[in-house]
Amino acid sequence: MKKLAMIMSLLAPISHHAVAETIYNGDVIQGRKVITQLDVSDLKKNTVTELFFRAGDEMNTGQYYYVPVTVMKGKNDGKNVMFVAGVHANEMNPYLTANLIKQQLNTDTMSGTVTIVHQYNIPGLVANVREYVPSGPVKVNSNLNREVALSSTKSSSQRYSYSLWNHLLKDNADYALDLHTANPTTFPLAAYSDLSIPAVKELTRLFPLDVTINSSSRTSVAGAYNHIGVPAFTLEIGSREVYEPQWINQALDGAMNLLKFAKVVDGEAKRYPDIVDTNVWLDVTAERGGFVVPKVDVLDQVKKGDLMFVQYDAFGEIAKEYHSPADGLVIQVVQTPMAEAGSQLGSVVYFDPAKALSDNVGSGSVVVKDLAAKK
Ligand SMILES: [Zn+2]
Question: 264: domain range?
Answer without folding.
Answer: 20-276
